[in-house]
Amino acid sequence: MSTAPEPDRFRLPLPNPTTPVVPAHRVVAQHAHLNARYDAAVWPLAPLISNPSTSLAAIRWRNCSPALEAEMRLAVWTMINGELRPTFLKERAVRLRSRLSPEGMGDAVQQWMLLTIWLEARGIHTLADCDGQVLRDYGHHLRDSGSGRPHVQRVLGWLTRLWAFDQLSARPAGIGRPPWDEFGADDFLPAATVVGGENSREPLAEATMGPLLVWAIRMIDDLSDDILAAWDEATRLINIAKTNTATAESKAALDAYLGPLIRSQAALPSTEHHGKPALARQYIMGITGASGRQVDTLNERHGLTKAAAERPGPCPLNVPVTGRIAGAPWREVLDFNEASSLMRHLATAAFIVCSYLTGMRPEEALGMVSGCCPDPQPDERGEVGRHLIHSHEWKTATDEEGNHTSAGAEREVPWVAITPVVNAIRVLERMVPPGSLLFDHLAHDLRFARQGTGSLKPGALRTRIEEFVDWANTEAAAQGLPGEAIASDPHGAIGTARFRRSLAWHIARRPGGLVALAIQYGHMRTALTTDVSGGYGTRSRDGIHNVIALETALATAETAAELHEHFEEGGGVSGPAARRALLEAATGPRFEGREVKTDFVRKYEEARKYLARDGAVIYENPHALLLCLYKQDRALCARDGIKDAPTLDACVPGCGNAVRTDQHAAQLRLRANTLDVRAAHAPQPVGDRLRANANKLRSFATEHDRTRITRQEATA
């Protein structure tokens, strides 16, 4: 007696016209009402999306070839509801997931629809006629389309999924197996190009990042109280204007306010309308209590619209100005018209501070919720720990089988928040209701409120950051601070995704420069290596230190190459570790990891191995003007415990790991001259200390000249 075969859990039943597009167990509750039926003209992907910073995309069937739509609907529904077999993934031995993210599904379906349009143009009206030869022609079409290699590679993968999910449907259409899946993709890919991704993005230039961070922190720490008070007062006036009714008292108040301005031909309170000055009708209604009709009657009688265009005046708010820039009040009075734009800039400043000084990805910063960073409580010994940010991650969120989960996951290891970040979060918590997203679009979209839930989108923030730069530069000029202007970045727009790489670059390469600004607010490097930060703050497989390790390995490799080149060209080298450093620079392994593709895990591992070579890694210290060939048992900066890298902001003179070049000696003398100039304009005690420091720097340069070795001497 034979037994019935076990049901194939990967093969799905045939849907009917009323079948939900997204199965109940995968629906995100907040978007459940958007779930469509199988026969709908539009399939929203929102029921799969909980990431608040992700746009709620949809599949629109009008973009598909009508002849192939029925077959394509079934394949798409199968992909949304099902998953690839483990055997399919194992046979390909690549980093594939059995389910794509909602964004990936949308991109894949878009490419499937483009295939249907291409097929229809060639007289093919069923997927059954799309065999291996047809797909070969389409693969060559993609290769020659002008798209970059990474994009074409992704499209080929999505088309392979079409074949795989067609086989799993209840009624397979019979599309052929793609030849690139069977014989390899090389013949279908254009020449290699530079790839994108967070690890290949250029870090922001110091002349851009430094002033940008200064203005962002200034907005949070020095100006936020004024801005929030101005917004509250402006909102109060707007609400009054909406509900005013005409009374004798309101007419008297209106006449008392505008009458003297009209009679004296003085400037009238104005706003901007379609780029031109106009009477600030709402402001006038708010401060006088007059109705709109009362203001309009007075306007008609005295021609106030024309007068306001000719004599535009301010709309001062009755709030105190407490903020200061460079020691002076930043405004004489805050204006009704600037309240909303200042609020936009304040939120943008908070995003910049949180993104740069934590290393969060944009979607992680945008996913923070009010209350995510509670004040730490004292432990049993009365010691207070660091502020920690508890929030979600999406890019790396997976389920127990390793598939992407659209609901995200709470980060197992919280982010460490230094003081500027905590301050930024506290400001954001004052801008949104309790329990809301810190960047909830309903609270921050002050110009054009859109429907729906979620946070501000990265695209909107990219625009806001450029607007913030323009505002800060205008403010720097007005405040007489040209040295604090934010320079244009040589690699283009600042964007939202370059902060993470910039943090790693500045920690690895500028220990005494830009990151010193963060260090003075809370010891940035210490925060990133504390035990409580776990995988986030150590050279482990996860978190920002993956990027820091990669950037540090690149920096030290470049330092070694530059030292070797300097010595080979006849330059001098001195210091107790000089000969060891020269040997390492000439014979040590090279690290070339700037271009990170799908092998990023291997590159991170290589970076960590490269940096783990005790006594063989050469660090540049621009603050101390020397090189450090770090060896733990000789490091004076490591006397308080074992460290796997130098503490470059705590370099100790006389350390056995020190190396100097001719360039360092020249820089020491330049710095000494600068100190002498400062000493000449300082009070005597301060001047004496500056001159003593200058003499010490010159002694280091003299010692280098006396003990330097060159290639000629070394080979003599």
Can you characterise this structure?
With 716 residues, the chain is an alpha+beta fold. Helix content is 48%, strand content 7%. A 4-stranded antiparallel beta sheet has the order 12-15-14-13, sandwiched between helices. A 3-stranded mixed beta sheet has the order 4-3-5. A two-stranded antiparallel sheet has the order 1-2. The longest helix has 38 residues. It is flat, with a radius of gyration of 32 Å. The N and C termini lie far apart (94 Å). 40% of the residues are buried. The N terminus is likely disordered.
Strand order of the largest sheet: 12-15-14-13
Tell me the number of strands: 15
Helix percent reads 40-55%
Q: Whole-number radius of gyration?
A: 32 Å
| Sheet with most strands | 4 strands, antiparallel
Strand content: 5-15%
The number of helical segments is: 25
| Principal-axes shape call | flat
Show unreliable segments: 1-6, 194-199, 513-542, 595-600
Q: Give the terminus-to-terminus CA distance.
A: 94 Å
Structural class: alpha+beta
Mean pLDDT: 84
Quickly list its features.
four-stranded antiparallel β-sheet, flat, alpha+beta, disordered N terminus, three-stranded mixed β-sheet, 716 residues
Summarize the structure.
With 716 residues, the chain is an alpha+beta fold. The chain has helices at residues 69-81, 86-92, 102-121, 132-143, 149-168, 179-183, 206-243, 248-263, 281-288, 292-302, 304-310, 339-358, 362-366, 419-431, 441-444, 458-478, 499-509, 514-522, 524-529, 544-568, 578-587, 600-611, 662-680, 684-707, 711-715, and strands at residues 42-44, 58-60, 268-273, 276-279, 312-313, 324-325, 328-329, 387-389, 392-393, 409-410, 415-417, 573-574, 617-621, 626-630, 658-661.
